[in-house]
Specification:
The chain has 156 residues and is an alpha+beta fold. It is built from four helices and six strands, in the order βββαααβββα.
Length: 156
């Protein structure tokens, strides 16, 4: 772990913990105190990171409404509003998407389809063919002046 301010590796663990149970640290270089969560997007969140991640994961995976999620976690003892769920989703979704993209970089699904669009590029009209796998990842792109789906499929 490194200091969240200066990036120094000269840190020491403090004996006390935060109210959420996270470990506290002190930087030997700049003297700044921080905890395990200080460098993340959920730094000032009131609830544990694993609960927030579970809420966002359920929201994205199962398409649950904001109010349903707040009600589901109320029965588990976590009282938060649907606006909090929306804020967590806005903060965590780009990070989750980037991690998933990084993990599957270079890997393409076994099934894909060709999408065709007529667009204007630098003042000239052309056909844009995109190969998209079943997970929605872009496989390849081809731009052509003439409409020829068979040539595009052969290209991909």
């Amino acid at each position: 772990m490194r200091c969240s301010v200066c990036g120094s590796a000269a840190i020491s663990e403090r004996p006390e913990r935060t109210t959420q149970g996270y470990r506290r640290y002190r930087c030997g270089t700049c003297g700044k105190q921080f905890n395990e969560r200080s460098v993340g997007v959920l730094n000032r969140a009131q609830y544990p990171s694993d609960v927030i991640a579970l809420v966002v994961l359920w929201r994205l995976r199962y398409k649950l409404s904001l109010r349903d999620l707040a009600e589901m976690f109320l029965t588990r003892g976590f009282n938060f509003s649907y606006e909090a769920v929306r804020d967590w989703e806005a903060k965590l979704t780009p990070t989750l998407a980037e991690n998933l993209r990084r993990r599957r970089k270079g890997r393409v699904g076994s099934r894909w389809y060709v999408d065709e669009t007529y667009i204007r590029v630098r003042g000239r009209w052309g056909y844009l063919y995109r190969a998209i796998d079943r997970d929605g990842a872009l496989v390849d792109v081809m731009l052509s002046e003439h409409r020829d789906l068979a040539a595009a499929r052969a290209f991909f």
